[in-house]
């Protein structure tokens, strides 16, 4: 058995000279949290409150929103901030409850993979969206796509 | 002489006579609870518990929500078919739960930020928890009837 090095009393805590990632993660949760409150409340207001709420959502509704770059950037910002915020939260929970070193590693890789994959997918979907895909379902779309 | 039930249980049958012979004070119906030895959870703990549970729930919804929205890149029919399931009564009730979780997580998250950065944050953390609950109730009272009307009448 190897002897464990015990630091002398009152010796300063050493954390290595690298970046304190946990601190930046902690700060990220708070900064992104405030922005997400605004972005998600706005998202819920437009999609679930205005008009007839959830029953009005369809392809044409999305096409209408994403015709404006404002909503494209709104949604992409929300996508990145929320997935990283959620992924970091899940990482914290895994660190708290998963006992084995291997289990923790596998779970955190799975979280990272899910977050990275969905960020890439979501970003591509927003910026390559084609409102004229398939059969345009609303009059406004039919006119717009016929003009193309 | 009166012994606490815990003490007499520990002593087992040896001192049963003490327990039966004793006269427990009937006036104090509240059992004396140990203070300061065991954390039994107050506003601080429950806000933390709810924050975790709502956070995990929102995360898993987010995974699904990005995937269902990605169907707009497949075809309008595919997207409309899947979003149509969000408009059913059962999913409508699920959305009440989702919005409830988001609203709590949002307000309590702001409370956490105030606890961390506001100099008086820790002093008012209990009060702020109840403000969070109050704002949650108000938001849900505004949202739920309107949302359920949309779900059940369209």
From TrEMBL, chain A:
<protein>
    <submittedName>
        <fullName>Succinate dehydrogenase</fullName>
    </submittedName>
</protein>
<dbReference type="GO" id="GO:0046872">
    <property type="term" value="F:metal ion binding"/>
</dbReference>
<keyword id="KW-0408">Iron</keyword>
<dbReference type="GO" id="GO:0016020">
    <property type="term" value="C:membrane"/>
</dbReference>
<feature type="transmembrane region" description="Helical">
    <location>
        <begin position="109"/>
        <end position="129"/>
    </location>
</feature>
<keyword id="KW-0479">Metal-binding</keyword>
<keyword id="KW-0472">Membrane</keyword>
<dbReference type="Pfam" id="PF01127">
    <property type="entry name" value="Sdh_cyt"/>
</dbReference>
<feature type="transmembrane region" description="Helical">
    <location>
        <begin position="70"/>
        <end position="88"/>
    </location>
</feature>
<keyword id="KW-0812">Transmembrane</keyword>
<dbReference type="InterPro" id="IPR034804">
    <property type="entry name" value="SQR/QFR_C/D"/>
</dbReference>
<keyword id="KW-1133">Transmembrane helix</keyword>
<keyword id="KW-0349">Heme</keyword>
<dbReference type="InterPro" id="IPR000701">
    <property type="entry name" value="SuccDH_FuR_B_TM-su"/>
</dbReference>
<feature type="transmembrane region" description="Helical">
    <location>
        <begin position="27"/>
        <end position="50"/>
    </location>
</feature>
């Amino acid at each position: 058995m190897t002897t464990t090095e015990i630091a002398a009393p009152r010796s300063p805590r050493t954390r290595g000279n690298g970046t304190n990632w946990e601190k930046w993660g902690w700060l990220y949760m708070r900064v992104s949290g405030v922005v997400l409150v605004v972005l998600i409340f706005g998202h819920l207001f437009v999609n679930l409150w205005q008009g007839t709420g959830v029953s009005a959502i369809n392809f044409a509704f999305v096409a209408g929103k994403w015709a404006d770059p404002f909503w494209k950037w709104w949604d992409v910002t929300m996508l990145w901030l929320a997935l990283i915020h959620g992924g970091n939260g899940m990482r914290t929970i895994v660190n708290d409850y998963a006992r084995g070193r291997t289990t923790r590693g596998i779970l955190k890789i799975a979280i990272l993979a899910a977050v990275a994959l969905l960020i890439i997918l979501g970003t591509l979907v927003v910026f390559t969206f084609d409102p004229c895909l398939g059969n345009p379902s609303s009059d406004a779309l039919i006119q717009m796509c016929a003009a193309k | 002489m009166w012994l606490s039930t815990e003490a007499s249980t520990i002593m087992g049958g040896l001192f049963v006579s003490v327990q039966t012979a004793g006269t427990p004070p009937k006036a104090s119906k509240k059992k004396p609870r140990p203070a300061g030895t065991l954390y039994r959870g107050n506003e601080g703990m429950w806000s933390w518990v709810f924050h975790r549970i709502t956070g995990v729930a929102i995360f898993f919804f987010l995974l699904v929500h990005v995937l269902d929205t990605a169907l707009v890149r497949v075809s309008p029919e595919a997207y409309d078919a899947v979003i149509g399931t969000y408009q059913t009564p059962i999913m409508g009730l699920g959305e009440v739960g989702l919005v409830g979780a988001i609203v709590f997580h949002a307000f309590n998250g702001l409370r956490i930020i105030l606890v961390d950065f506001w100099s008086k944050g820790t002093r008012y953390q209990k009060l702020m928890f109840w403000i969070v609950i109050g704002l949650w109730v108000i938001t849900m009272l505004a949202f739920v009837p309107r949302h359920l009307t949309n779900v059940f009448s369209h």
